Amino acid sequence: MYMLVHCSNCHTPLQLPPGANSICCAICHAITYIVDPRSAPPPPALSYSSSSQYQHYPPQPHPFQVVPSPFSHAPPGPPPAVHGPKRAVICAVSYKNTKNELKGCINDAMCMKYLLVNRFDFPESSIIMLTEEETDPYRRPTKSNMRLALSWLVQGCQPGDSLVFHFSGHGSQQKDYNGDELDGYDETLCPTDFETQGMIVDDEINAVIVKPLSHGVKLHAIIDACHSGTVLDLPFLCRMDRSGKYAWEDHRPRSGVWKGTSGGEVISFSGCDDDQTSADTSALSKITSTGVMTYSFIQAIERGHGTTYGSMLNAMRATIRKTTGELGGGIVTTLISMLLAGGNFSGGITQEPQLTASEPFDVYSKPFSL
């Protein structure tokens, strides 16, 4: 059972894994040490903070510091091999039997897994699926399980590794309190228990799966959620108009806090801009509900547009704009057609997928690959 403690510096609630005696805050990076109040005092060199139970060590300010994850344990049960060159976390949150219910998320997860295994040669044994269809309680998309899975994704990563994080569910925003957001709001992902346990904030996502990546490691995030444009808090956003002309926007915090990697590469496709919402619809497949962004991502690959990142982004946006056109497709699109229908959508789709990255690059010359 996890113990709830508060960061001794910024007081963010943290979940301490069993047996651990310290934890690193994903928000301010301070280390909180847990001591038994019945035990002898620590050595004189260690000073207590305002709480008699917690001690605080300020973080080192090096911009390329590898931040240890506070959730360094893999999910219980037999986990996939952590050192495989390709591995993925696929998370689908349907919020069943609630007012927040979504119809297409499980379809998104099934299709994404199929794509990774059959098109990009990801071993099934190296993919963690978190869905509400899972019977294993540790494979359900709760806040705790999502944190553990994200930590597993980057554990022991080595040069040449290719990692994927796919999320389909609700996203939201909340007021930014540490001054690292240009618009004043943090972006968030909503686990199935977000109403009681809270949302997962972009600061934490960045600290857990972006900052630790070393040279030669590549991570792709595919985020099908509202307000998801900068949900990985990456330093650069590709602002592209409808003609395909683009420029990289600098989203590095004015505070100077480093939001990039430790030498690795992270590229994120997200369902919409930070101020937009993402649709869950049957308007694209014509048969079953899917997330608009996930469907357009798969469709772009299946129709041969997965050559460069620029062609991918343009194709995804064109697919969404032409919702009334006939959508052909390949083997993955056929899989979507085989799934049970569910959900409805009315009205036009106005979202525009976004591309963010740890470093800017030429989107029309860099080959796309997972």
Notes on the structure:
The structure is a single chain. The chain is α+β, with helices and mostly antiparallel strands and 370 residues long. The chain folds into two domains: 1-59, no CATH class; 86-357, 3-Layer(aba) Sandwich (Rossmann fold). It has seven helices and 18 strands. It has helices at residues 105-119, 143-154, 194-197, 202-210, 292-302, 309-321, 331-338, and strands at residues 3-6, 13-16, 22-24, 31-34, 54-57, 86-92, 127-130, 162-168, 171-175, 185-189, 200-201, 218-224, 236-240, 246-250, 265-270, 280-281, 290-291, 354-357. The strands form five sheets. It has an eight-stranded mixed sheet with strand order 7-6-8-12-15-18-13-14, with helices on both faces. Strands 3-4-5 form a three-stranded antiparallel sheet, with no helix packed on it. A hairpin with an 8-residue loop joins strand 16 and strand 17. Helix 1 runs antiparallel to helix 7 (331-338) and helix 5 (292-302) crosses helix 6. The model is unreliable at 36-75, 276-287 and 324-349 (pLDDT under 50). Residues 7-31 form the Zinc finger LSD1-type domain. Belongs to the peptidase C14B family.
Q: What is the element layout, followed by pairings?
A:
Elements: E1 3-6, E2 13-16, E3 22-24, E4 31-34, E5 54-57, E6 86-92, H1 105-119, E7 127-130, H2 143-154, E8 162-168, E9 171-175, E10 185-189, H3 194-197, E11 200-201, H4 202-210, E12 218-224, E13 236-240, E14 246-250, E15 265-270, E16 280-281, E17 290-291, H5 292-302, H6 309-321, H7 331-338, E18 354-357
Protein name: Metacaspase-1-like
InterPro entries: Caspase-like_dom_sf (IPR029030), Metacaspase (IPR050452), Pept_C14_caspase (IPR011600), Znf_LSD1 (IPR005735)
GO molecular function: cysteine-type endopeptidase activity
